[in-house]
Design a protein that fits this description.
Blueprint: H1 8-18, E1 24-32, E2 36-43, E3 47-54, E4 58-62, H2 73-82, E5 86-92, E6 98-104, E7 108-114, E8 120-124, E9 130-133, E10 137-138, E11 143-144, H3 164-173, H4 179-186, H5 191-201, H6 214-230, E12 236-239, E13 242-244, E14 255-257, H7 260-264, H8 275-313, H9 315-332, H10 334-344, E15 348-351, E16 356-359
Antiparallel strand pairs: 1-2, 1-5, 2-3, 3-4, 5-6, 6-7, 7-8, 8-9, 10-11, 12-13, 12-14, 15-16
Helix pairs in contact: 3-6, 4-5, 5-6, 9-10
């Protein structure tokens, strides 16, 4: 299925590329599609840059500037504080799916972008009090609404800073049933990147994390370090409908872009397909399923033909075997037939219940 959101690893890749924006002046804030905003920026020696922000989904530089003529109330609030302001820093909160933009105008503000769950956009003052937010949200451990102090969600393990000893300790204490689930959820890498680590480290992904040795843990850590290095200069690798910031093992990308942002800009999360496009996709899936079924049937035909030819070539032997078995059965019973078969015919066995001889050919 098409890509719908950024993982923690992918957000890290985007943030690395966006460092070229700093410092950047916010020329204007625009609404973008249903829940997003677009920051028009002026960057020294690079000119105008457009930063697309879709909470809960994507963050990337874009070349598309489509916005409603009439700005929303939220957009107008942001303009009051952000127009002509300077972005002084742009950082990912540890390894969480949260981005923090530090902004200076008459006063300091923070624009906090959340990409987990439904996502959110929150503007806070220098005391970390929420001025405005895209959506008011109430969680078990925090409330997001104007006037409240902004609290970050409880922090998971930071895969950016974990070392061999801490990783081994985490796996030994894990209550997950497999190492891939532990890496995906407890370390926060997500399923695909956890599987990539296991594959490259040569470790069974279904292995109980408590049974992972320190040496195996070190191998995982070594592969994680390779991922972190690749994120310093990410590219855009297209595989089917997914896009990744580095090459995956044992897979060939369809296309490679020079930056990960460029790849993300091809995604249109709000584009609605026409009934004709949906019908075409349905028919394409049906054709692909039927072609796979035809392939399987052809393989079966080849296999059954081979068996038939083998039977024909050994017809005399099979007929003699059958005659001998029938005669032995009449005289001494099925047990005698079974004992006779066991003597030297390893590719045969007797089904005493159905009184048949099974031959592997």
């Amino acid at each position: 299925m098409p890509k719908t959101t950024l993982s923690s690893v992918e957000l890290a890749a985007v943030v690395e590329e966006l460092q070229m924006l700093i410092p950047a002046k916010i020329s204007r804030v625009y609404d973008y599609e249903e829940r997003g905003i677009l920051l028009e920026l002026h960057v020294r020696e690079k000119g105008k840059q457009l930063l697309r922000i879709i909470p809960g989904k994507f963050l990337n530089l874009t070349t598309s500037k489509e916005s409603p003529i009439q700005p929303s109330g939220f957009c107008q609030q942001l303009r009051k504080y952000l127009d002509s302001a300077i972005i002084t820093s742009l950082r990912q909160k540890d390894s969480e799916r949260i981005l923090v933009l530090e902004i200076e105008k008459e006063q300091r503000h923070s624009l906090i972008l959340e990409f987990f769950s439904k996502g959110n956009i929150i503007l806070t003052d220098e005391t970390n009090t929420i001025i405005t937010c895209l959506e008011r949200q109430t969680w078990k451990d925090r409330t997001v609404k104007p006037g409240e102090k902004y609290l970050f969600p409880p922090a998971p393990i930071n895969w950016k800073e974990i070392n061999e000893a801490k990783l081994y300790q985490l796996l030994q204490k894990s209550g997950k049933k497999s190492v891939i689930i532990s890496l995906a959820t407890e370390v926060g890498l997500g399923g695909l990147y956890a599987e990539e680590l296991c594959k490259n480290a040569g470790i069974d992904k279904e292995k109980n994390p408590k049974n992972v040795s320190f040496t195996e843990s070190a191998k995982i850590m070594n592969e994680l370090q390779k991922i972190k290095e690749s994120l310093k200069k990410p590219l855009g690798f297209f595989y089917e409908e997914e896009i990744y910031p580095f090459a995956l093992t044992d897979k060939t990308p369809k296309t490679i872009t020079q930056t990960y942002n460029e790849a993300l800009d091809t995604l249109k999360p709000f584009k609605k397909k026409s009934p004709y496009e949906n019908k075409i996709e349905h028919l394409q899936r049906t054709i692909a399923t039927q072609e796979e079924a035809i392939k399987i049937q052809k393989e079966k035909i080849i296999e059954e033909s081979r068996k038939g030819e083998s039977i024909y070539e050994n017809y005399t032997f099979f007929q003699q075997l059958l005659d001998h078995a029938k005669e032995l059965f009449k005289k001494e019973g099925i047990e005698a037939v079974e004992q006779e078969i066991k003597k030297d015919k390893k590719n045969m066995k007797v089904d005493k219940f159905r009184k048949k001889i099974a031959i592997t050919i």
